Amino acid sequence: MLNVHVNDLFPERRIEKDAAIETLDNIRDDIAFRLNEGATRRKSAMHTPVVVTDDADARVMVLRQFDRVGWRLRFHTDARSPKVDVIGDGAPVGVLFYDREAKVQVRCRGRGWIERDTPLVDEAWAKSTNFARRCYLGEGPGAVSDTPTSGLPSQFEGTEPSDEELVPARENFAVLLVELEEADWFSLAHTGHRRAIIHLASGEGRWVSP
């Protein structure tokens, strides 16, 4: 396999801390770079953003994929989760990213929807490990228990299920897609904070006071 760095495949560059901020196009490229890095590097600060649904509920989720062309994010979720009903076939979704080291916050707004039985979901399921898939074997999120519980069947506590044992889990697996529309980029700096709001599809934006 060729040893190709993500930067070679993804020409946008992150704005380094204390670097000069020149244009709104630079900010848009910085956002794209960070989201791509969040989806492709597990240790990236952007890998686990906070996803907020229309009922003002928030949760940390793992960013699985970023489509630069459509500014689309992909997350995995349990089809039985309450947020699935809230989002449905289309609802406002906010996604908050924060890079503590770089002191950069990106607040994204867009439209989310849930997919359960599409080729994209089948592909995401096929690429998941059996350990990841086993999360969908147990009780649904929020199920009440008299004792602390993972929700998993006891035989799968700390054990990797076989492909055959995971067959019932597939119907509980779903994908959350979020098509981003606007990003609020905020950089903390001792020389003075900077903030910009970018319409991602068109590239139009404006500088605003922090």
From TrEMBL:
Residue intervals of the Pyridoxamine 5'-phosphate oxidase Alr4036 family FMN-binding domain: 57-114
For the region Disordered, give the residue spans: 142-164
Q: Which domain of life is it from?
A: Bacteria
Give residue spans, biased composition: Polar residues. 146-157
Spell out the protein name for this chain.
Flavin-binding protein
Q: Which species is listed as the source?
A: Erythrobacter westpacificensis
